[in-house]
């Protein structure tokens, strides 16, 4: 696994969840720990790639040899990703990006007054969709975390976001998904081919995914 088949390639990886502020104390977040994205970043660096890791809040150290930019919100992740996009060969979006954010961020802590509290949410930019629109030579890989109709939703995202591959994880399965060391994924290719992987460590999933990406790169150059 120690081959240097990504030497000379620049790869952008996003990891962890974004946080969208409600007030100075609270935020809307999700359960992504960053483990999947950091495993990919470490594995890509091990293969000689120049790795740019753009991470939401995570309790993980940057893997050796990886340049890391830490962000909090989807808007910050969008800006950081777009700043690098033109210079990279590969993008893997393992981050769980909040689809919505509070319309207004209260500048003071919201007090416990009424029995109910309504927070209006507005749509965040879809970063990967935007990359799909802009892409030239880049290989674009997305993730899809689903609780039902995994393949239908994942295929929809693959097409809509103009991806080369999507990694579908059914997060209802024990051993798959958020905040654990293993994952169970299906890799769906642009041409419709599907590869089903058994439960593997996130490092092993990362290596297999990078093998597929290296194959695509050798085909396209
Ligand atoms: O971090 P871990 O704890 O290890 O968990 C890993 C994981 C389960 C978070 C990861 O494997 C995973 O599945 N990440 C994607 C989570 C997800 O729900 O994605 P999505 O279906 O909302 O989005 C599909 C794709 O579009 C993703 O590549 C996402 O990064 C991207 N996206 C989504 C919304 C948005 N506004 N902008 C985006 O770029």
TrEMBL record:
Binds 1 FMN per subunit. In the C-terminal section; belongs to the PPC synthetase family. In the N-terminal section; belongs to the HFCD (homo-oligomeric flavin containing Cys decarboxylase) superfamily. Pathway: Cofactor biosynthesis; coenzyme A biosynthesis; CoA from (R)-pantothenate: step 2/5; Cofactor biosynthesis; coenzyme A biosynthesis; CoA from (R)-pantothenate: step 3/5. The chain holds residues 180 to 400 of 400 of the full protein. The gene is coaBC. Transmembrane segments: none annotated. Residues 6-215 form the DNA/pantothenate metabolism flavoprotein C-terminal domain. Keywords: Decarboxylase, Flavoprotein, FMN, Ligase, Lyase, Magnesium, Metal-binding, Multifunctional enzyme. It comes from the Bacteria. CTP binds at residues 99, 109, 125-128, 143, 157, 161. One of its GO terms (biological process) is coenzyme A biosynthetic process. Residues 11-221 are annotated as: Phosphopantothenate--cysteine ligase. Its cofactor is Mg(2+); FMN. This is Coenzyme A biosynthesis bifunctional protein CoaBC. Catalyzes two steps in the biosynthesis of coenzyme A. In the first step cysteine is conjugated to 4'-phosphopantothenate to form 4-phosphopantothenoylcysteine, in the latter compound is decarboxylated to form 4'-phosphopantotheine. Catalyzes two sequential steps in the biosynthesis of coenzyme A. In the first step cysteine is conjugated to 4'-phosphopantothenate to form 4-phosphopantothenoylcysteine. In the second step the latter compound is decarboxylated to form 4'-phosphopantotheine. Its EC number is 4.1.1.36, 6.3.2.5. It catalyses: (R)-4'-phosphopantothenate + L-cysteine + CTP = N-[(R)-4-phosphopantothenoyl]-L-cysteine + CMP + diphosphate + H(+); N-[(R)-4-phosphopantothenoyl]-L-cysteine + H(+) = (R)-4'-phosphopantetheine + CO2.
